[in-house]
Amino acid sequence: MNLYSYCLRFDNGAAPNPYWGICTLAICKPGIRRIARVGDWVVGLGSKDSPIGDISTRMVYAMKVTRVLSMKDYDEFCRRSRTEKLPDLANPDFRRKVGDCIYDFDKAYQPSLRQSIHSQENRETDLAGKNVLLSEDFYYFGEKAVELPEALFPLIHSTQGYKSLANAPYIDNFVQWVEDEAWKKNEPLGEPQRKRGILSRAEEEYRTSCSKQDRKEDEWDRVAIMPSSLS
Question: What is the pTM of this model?
Answer without folding.
Answer: 0.89
